[in-house]
């Protein structure tokens, strides 16, 4: 007996057209895709004309375990992921202790088996304790199953440390995933440096704090042959560097967040730390550069940088509150509404940035719907319109500047490895 999804539509990958298809799942695989499939002997779910897409993949998620379980746990973070239509997340190592050893990776993977609600992969740290000094045992981390290396949350300050990390990563065939931030330029900034920060009298983080590291690491990737992946790109010059690197055949990929595609520093009044994130919301010029780069393929994928913090932490003054937004539970409808419904990008293109592209870049399961592939599936109701209401979140974090926004195109069913993980 299989699980049969009847009466739904798939997106034709070539034409972007919606085509009527039944989809049969057996165990953890897609068994069959056809115009009609005989329901006899199967458990049926009537999809009622909704859209069937591959389960979403988010390569930048802070699950906060171990050490910060008061912000998020693997149980709550992966439940939030399933509600947002995600089948797979890759979690960040800036936990306490840092995920910088085989044992810590194993701990996260064991916990995910026990309490997870989607597939969980982890990055291992580049340096021990994310202190930027001593390289981790990257070989051991690979054996433990990491999908890449990052010191996310902080930049690796020493170019020579990054060079050695890239040499190792190139040998191991895994990506170096960068949080691009030069601390000597970022200083104690709390928002983008520019007209708005000056008007508000708040210390700024210049775009160069990001672009200088992106440029440096592209050159090191060229030198070492490592695959460089740029996290949460937000600065127009950094985007231009990635475009140039790709044109030169340097192995670089990049992700952008929903907030850097939709928001700018002009919307910040300095009173609400739910608008504080790193990298900071930048200018309209930067935002447009990110959007154009997403459209022309310079930016490969969308990642939420889901970074939960407590209400108390985010109630602090703008200068002292922690950086970060949650994002898993509404990323798709948010972008569907603002990018697809407004005609800026096609539905097929948006889905690709949530699925096929991250799967391909990181070699993750899922990402495409085909017979024999993993049964990782999301069903979207493109006409359903809801308000983003933090009180309904499964995440412990409520910190989002998108609160109260009405958006369309919500996930109504998520299936991971053939198991229903969310049903509206
Ligand atoms: N993005 C953020 O503003 N914060 C992240 C760290 C990070 O992704 O850099 C966090 O861990 O809270
Ligand atoms: Zn980061």
Number of helices: 14
- The gross shape turns out to be globular
Bound molecules: N-carbamoyl-L-aspartate, zinc ion
Low-confidence parts lasting 5 or more residues at pLDDT below 50? none
Tell me the total number of β-strands.
Answer: 17
Rg computed from alpha carbons, rounded to a whole number of angstroms? 21 Å
Strand proportion, as a percent range, falls in 15-25%
**Alpha-carbon distance between the two ends:** 24 Å
| Major sheet | 8 strands, mixed
Oligomer state of the chains in this structure: single chain
Helical content (DSSP H or I, runs of 4+): 25-40%
Question: What structural class do helix, strand and pairing data support?
Answer: alpha/beta
Average per-residue pLDDT, rounded, comes to 98
Enzyme class: hydrolase
Catalytic activity: (S)-dihydroorotate + H2O = N-carbamoyl-L-aspartate + H(+)
InterPro entries: DHOase, DHOase/Allantoinase_Hydrolase, DHOase_cat, Dihydroorotase_CS, Metal-dep_hydrolase_composite, Metal_Hydrolase
Pfam families: DHOase
Structure description:
The model has no long low-confidence stretch (mean pLDDT 98). The protein has helices spanning 74-83, 102-115, 138-143, 159-172, 183-186, 195-200, 208-224, 236-247, 258-262, 284-296, 311-314, 331-340, 347-354, 356-362, and strands at 3-11, 18-26, 29-34, 43-46, 51-54, 56-61, 86-91, 119-122, 176-178, 191-192, 204-205, 228-230, 252-256, 301-302, 377-387, 406-416, 419-423. Strand 7 (86-91), helix 2 and strand 8 (119-122) form a beta-alpha-beta unit. It is 31% helix and 22% strand. The chain has 14 helices and 17 strands. The longest helix is centred in the middle third of the chain and has 17 residues, at 208-224. Helix 7 (208-224) runs parallel beside helix 8. It is α/β, with parallel strands linked by helices and 424 residues long. Strands 1, 2, 3, 4, 5, 15, 16 and 17 form an 8-stranded mixed β-sheet that branches. Strands 9-12-13-14 form a 4-stranded parallel β-sheet. A 3-stranded parallel β-sheet has the order 6-7-8, with helices on both faces. N-carbamoyl-L-aspartate (NCD) binds at residues 62, 94, 152-153, 179, 277-278, 305, 307, 322-324.
